[in-house]
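dumping this here before i forget
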Amino acid sequence: MTFIEKLNTAWKTNNSLLCVGLDPDIKRFPAHLQGQPDAVFAFCKAIIDATADFACAFKPQIAYFAALRAEDQLEAICRYLRERYPHIPLVLDAKRGDIGATAEQYAREAFERYNADAVTLNPYMGFDSIAPFLEWKDRGSIILCRTSNPGGSDLQFLTVGGQAQPMPLFQLVARLVANEWNTNGQCALVVGATFPQELAEVRAIVGDLPLLVPGIGAQGGDIQATVLAGRTANGAGMMINSSRAILYAAPQADEDFAQAARRVAAETCDAINLHRI
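structure:
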């Protein structure tokens, strides 16, 4: 299956738009994992197993693994996901953005080393930085458009396009991806939940193009506003990411960390589904 086909299947099979982000922070691991050589793998595996039936995608953030010199454990996590949950898309959050031979190597890293279904990309260097990833026609290219951080407005909201058709830069990115770059039907966009008005504007521009939507949970994005702004006509079209709120959910009663994560994932999935149709 291609990335888009797998994503469509996951939306239906798990009845979910929830993307579970994997951002391992060893300082927040439970006590029994502290100091263990495979703690990152063990933690992420437990989260995956606890939340898989509520997820339409998993999104490991490469920096969290690289900073811990745990790329081997990231490889093991990606391998586990592909073997145990092959029906759930694996999105490598790497935000790569370079050109030529360097971009080709970044594509090999994402799609060969980690065997990801899709990777996040930075379009600042233009189509040249995206093209090497598009050569992998069964994999997804998820391109930054309107990010969830306040500082994103420094550039993404600048007016471009000249007097004939002025528009914010993020809208131009959305148009380029939807109308020119998505030649193989494998592209998606990153649009933050913290800006629902801009999310709705992007949806209007790109039609049914999938959107990766960070910003709910710890970043404070409103679930109802996000879903109403970004859903497609059939109530899908989004991977709404939550990372820290699920990973580090406070256990209740006799819960362990994985059971707490499962509870919050279920609650988040249900809250999203309330507004899908």
